[in-house]
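Quiz preparation item.
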C-alpha cells in the first residue's frame, strides 16, 4: 500500500473534526454521527485536559468512536498516544512538538498517517524531513479550547509557509468557525480542523455542513 498520497490526504483533510469526552456537551457518539452526516471528512480522537478519560475507559471510548468512523469510512486518528493508535489499528496519529519525535513515531507506525503540529517554517521543515504526511498549523485565531495554546498567529502563517516552499497538506487549527474558515483556505490551507465549532454547536450536523460548504466555496475560488 505505502504511504497515503498528498493528493488523497488533501481531499480527506477538508473538514477535520477533533474531539474528546470533555469537549462534548451532549452524547459524544451521537455528536460524531451528526458531524459525519453533516460532512466531516476526517476525525481525531483527542482525549486530554480536565476530566479526560484514561486506562480502559479511554480505550473503550476510543473504540466506540473508531467503530462509528469505520462505518462511514472516515479516517480515525489518535492524538499523542501512539501505543493506543497501534493497539486499535487506527488510521494514524497526530503529534505535537512536545511529543515523541516525528521520525521515531514514523518508524513505529509504518505507513499509517502521521500529522504533526507546526508553528513556524523551521518546525514545518523538520516535521516533513522526519516523515509527516500533513501539518496542523495554529492557533490561527484565539481559542478557548486549548488552555496552553500559543498566541494566535492569524492566517499569515499559512501564507508564509506556502510562500517558503511547504507543499504538503496543511490544516489550520484554533478558533476556526463557519465565519472565518474561508480565510484559512484562501491563505493556503487544504482544510480546517475544529473542535468547538462542531462540538459546542447546537446542531453539530448543521455546523459541519456549513463548514464543508464554506470550504468547498473557498476551494472553488482557487
Ligand atoms: N491546537 C491548537 S489550537 C487547538 C489545538 C488542539 C484547539 C482548537 O479548538 P477550537 O475549539 O477549534 O478552537
Ligand atoms: Mg500532543
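Solution:
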Amino acid at each position: 500500500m505505502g504511504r497515503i498520497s498528498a493528493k488523497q490526504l488533501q481531499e480527506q483533510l477538508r473538514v477535520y473534526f477533533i474531539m474528546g469526552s470533555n469537549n462534548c456537551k451532549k452524547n459524544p457518539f451521537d455528536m460524531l454521527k451528526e458531524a459525519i452526516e453533516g460532512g466531516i471528512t476526517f476525525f481525531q480522537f483527542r482525549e486530554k485536559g480536565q476530566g479526560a478519560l484514561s486506562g480502559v475507559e479511554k480505550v473503550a471510548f476510543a473504540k466506540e468512536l473508531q467503530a462509528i468512523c469505520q462505518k462511514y469510512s472516515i479516517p480515525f486518528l489518535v492524538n499523542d498516544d501512539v501505543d493506543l493508535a497501534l493497539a486499535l489499528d487506527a488510521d494514524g496519529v497526530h503529534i505535537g512538538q512536545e511529543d515523541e519525535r516525528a521520525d521515531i513515531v514514523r518508524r513505529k507506525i509504518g505507513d499509517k498517517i502521521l500529522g504533526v503540529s507546526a508553528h513556524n517554517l523551521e518546525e514545518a521543515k523538520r516535521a516533513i524531513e522526519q516523515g509527516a504526511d500533513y501539518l496542523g498549523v495554529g492557533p490561527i485565531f484565539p481559542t478557548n479550547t486549548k488552555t496552553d495554546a500559543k498566541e494566535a498567529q492569524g492566517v499569515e502563517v499559512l501564507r508564509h509557509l506556502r510562500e517558503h516552499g511547504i507543499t504538503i497538506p496543511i490544516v489550520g487549527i484554533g478558533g476556526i468557525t463557519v465565519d472565518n474558515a474561508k480565510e484559512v483556505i484562501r491563505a493556503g490551507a487544504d482544510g480546517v480542523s475544529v473542535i468547538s465549532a462542531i462540538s459546542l454547536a447546537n446542531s453539530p450536523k448543521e455546523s459541519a455542513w456549513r463548514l464543508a460548504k464554506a470550504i468547498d466555496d473557498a476551494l472553488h475560488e482557487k
